[in-house]
Design goal:
CATH architecture: 3-Layer(aba) Sandwich
Largest sheet: 9 strands, mixed
Number of domains: 1
Strand content: 15-25%
Strand order of the largest sheet: 3-4-11-10-5-6-8-7-9
CATH class: Alpha Beta
Order of helices and strands: EEEEHEHHHEEEEHEHEHH
Number of strands: 11
Bound molecules: S-adenosylmethionine
CATH superfamily: Vaccinia Virus protein VP39
CATH topology: Rossmann fold
């Protein structure tokens, strides 16, 4: 039944993930971040997000873009011929419903991109990405389910632009807008961070970030991008006003 299933908190098979170690009876394990910023505001894990979540308490906000379960459909035409999308057929085969339910339970506020691929409670606060340069064979819009009792909002912006090797990389402008729609949230959690786009947004907005990615190649891209962002600049924490869409359009990726 929806939201009744509990994820096992017993120690999973962890040998692959070098960042895991036992701390004693009662507490199964604690995970050391694969990367942590000097001030501790950014923690990144090369791991299965379920293993990290089992060690966490509640988070103020999750903004994430999980696999949508479309992998098998990515086998025709231009997409099917492309190596980048061949990889995607593997990790995007199943939409992780049970993990998404856990994420919603542990988050005070939550944004699930591709929320229309999951069974989630009714919500009026959807976030819509209107893809300005959508090609005819792809969707004109993407939808994010949110836990917020707010009006549905739309962001208009183009697809692509950052050129990482991740096949479903989201634009930074979109994730800046998406995170900012939640208002003042101290920490943003992304359990499916891919190339790290969501993580760039809180760093740029002066928030804390916890990110997890299971694929070592994508993790490497994410860590490099987020470190570069940390090296550039950080706003002080507690900015008062969420940015408006015009601000994001002015920010160069
Ligand atoms: C839709 S992509 C995220 C793309 C991201 N928004 C970006 O801009 O690059 C989903 C990611 O979740 C990762 N993933 C799938 N299952 C996972 C799991 N159990 N734990 C952590 N990451 C996982 C995949 O490897 C993939 O990179």
């Amino acid at each position: 039944m929806l939201f009744e299933q509990r994820t096992s908190k017993t120690q999973p098979h962890v040998s692959y993930y070098y960042s895991v170690y036992r701390v004693g009876p009662g507490i199964n394990f604690r995970m050391k971040p694969t990367f942590e910023s000097k001030d501790g505001a950014v923690k990144l894990y090369l791991a299965n997000c379920l293993h990290v979540m089992a060690t966490m308490g509640r988070v103020s906000a999750t903004v994430t873009d999980p696999p949508y379960g479309l992998g098998k459909r990515m086998n025709g035409g231009t997409w099917g011929a492309c190596q980048k999308f061949a990889e995607m057929r593997e990790w995007d085969e199943v939409a992780p419903q049970a993990i998404v339910e856990e994420i919603v339970k542990m988050s005070e506020s939550c944004v699930i991109w591709g929320g229309n691929y999951f069974t989630l409670p009714p919500s009026r606060g959807w976030q819509i990405w209107d893809k300005q340069n959508a090609v005819k064979t792809m969707a004109d819009c993407e939808m994010a389910w949110t836990s917020e009792d707010k009006n549905t909002k739309r962001y208009s912006g183009p697809v692509g632009g950052h050129g990482t090797k991740h096949p479903t990389e989201k634009p930074i402008g979109l994730m800046l807008w998406s995170v900012s729609q939640l208002g003042q949230k101290e920490t943003i959690f992304d359990p499916f961070m891919g190339s790290g786009t969501t993580g760039v947004a809180p760093v740029r907005l002066g928030r804390k970030f916890i990110g997890v990615e299971i694929n070592p190649d994508y993790y490497e891209i994410a860590e490099e991008r987020i470190k570069r962002e940390l090296d550039q600049f950080r706003l002080p924490l507690n900015i008062e006003q969420p940015l408006i869409q015009a601000d994001f359009m002015a920010i160069k990726p």
